[in-house]
Amino acid sequence: MMENSAAHLTRRKPKKPKKKWKKPLIITLSVLLVLGGLGFIYQKQLVVFAFNMFASGTVKEALDDSFKTAGDKDAPVVEHTDPFSLLLLGIDQRDNEPSRSDTIIYSVVRPEDNKVLLLSIPRDSYTEIVGRDVKSKINSAYAHGEAKMAMDTVENLLENKVDFYAAINFNGLKDIVDAVGGVELPIKKNIENKSKAHEKLFVEANKPIYSGEEALGYVRYREDSDFNRTMRHRIFLSAFMNRALEVKNLTKIPDVIQIAGSNFTTNMTSDFIVKFAESLYMKDSTPTISNYMLKGEGATRSGVWFYDLSEDDLQYVRGMIASWLDPDATEIIEPESADQADTPDAA
Questions:
Q1: CB 242 within 8 A of CB 177
Q2: What pLDDT was estimated at residue 320?
């Protein structure tokens, strides 16, 4: 009996379970590795897909709120892949001051070439103000006729079309910069207003990241030349673009646009902006930016200081812009030389 029992017990000895989990686990790990690899390879596509799924509606609504026509001036029908011109206006409105455009940058974008031209027009440039039949400082155009008069005046000056405009009040710049975690700026020397006639302003040099308040001081500083001031504006634009296009900041774009709110207006439709931004992001690198500033010299009329533009330089710039706007151009005219600050540390 004992022998039978022992034999029975031996026969009933549980078998070791087969390792059935190995195959599913290997398959799962393989799938994860493949998806991880695809995620790395197609990171941009996945980000754009996520944006279109979860954020595009919010962004379009915010952009629709910022849409504002330029008077009776119709915006052209432009494909987001075609070269187009954009007048960037920085409105530095302060207490007891008119809303003049202290920053005027005529830009040309060539999406297919991933290139951008930024042409600074000094705010004190003496020119005809279209719609007023007077000659005055170009920044007065916006004060008297907002975007339409500014666009008409710049078109007349440069003899090239202005397709779109985008105006932002500097009051909204601070929060926008903070929303993307600050910007990198090449400040090699402390920036400080020393004149009692100007508001207090101090920006410390050699910091890795600058806050919105510091970036606002960087673009507002005016105690050196207008040449350096407009150069700082272009440097800031480039720095902010690079920061906003970082993968980690793409999810913050809806917040940035909503923060801009009433401080931002444009006649570009939300569909155009979103399509263009998507194509820009899908490039292998950020756009190559070429800079130029209209040349001239100071002059005084009836005790008022103006900036007289060089006619020779205007002719050169008009030809350069025309080449950038030509969709069939195989070679475009690059600015003759890079900007040089008045002093090595002025930037």
A1: no
A2: 97
pLDDT band at 103 (very low <50, low <70, confident <90, very high): confident
In this structure, which amino acid lies at residue 34? V
- 89: closest CA among 77, 107, 76? 107
> Taking a C-beta distance cutoff of 8 angstroms, is the pair 216, 205 a contact?
no
Which residues, 6+ apart, have CB-to-CB distance to 206 below 8 Å?
Answer: 187, 188
Q: Tokens 């009692």 — which residue? A: 196
Residue type, 38: L
Rounded to whole angstroms, what are the CA distances from 129 to 41, 137, 140, 149?
A: 52, 8, 8, 8
For residues 217 and 201, the answer to whether their CB atoms sit within 8 Å is yes
The continuous run of DSSP H or E covering 137 comes out as: strand 134-137
Per DSSP bridges, beta strands 164-169 and 191-192 are: unpaired
**Helix residue ranges, H only, the chain:** 2-11, 22-41, 43-54, 56-66, 140-158, 173-179, 212-220, 226-244, 247-250, 253-260, 270-281, 311-325
pLDDT at site 50: 54
Q: Map out the domains of the chain as residue ranges.
A: 55-325
Half-sphere exposure of 58 (CA within 13 A, CB side): 14
What is the C-alpha to C-alpha distance for residues 218 and 190, in angstroms, rounded to an integer? 10
Residue 162 exposure: Cα atoms within 13 Å on the Cβ side: 28
Q: How many helices (H) and strands (E) does the chain have?
A: 12, 12
- Among residues 333, 330, 311, 314, the alpha carbon closest in space to that of 322 is found at 333
Query: 45-100: per-residue pLDDT in tens?
Result: 555 555 555 455 667 777 888 899 998 888 888 887 889 999 999 887 665 555 77
Q: What's the CATH fold of domain 55-325? A: Aminopeptidase (3.40.630)
Q: Taking Cα atoms as reference points, which of 177, 175, 145, 178 lies closest to residue 261?
A: 175
DSSP 99-111: --EEEEEEEEEEG
> Sorting pLDDT into bands at 50, 70 and 90, what band is 332?
very high
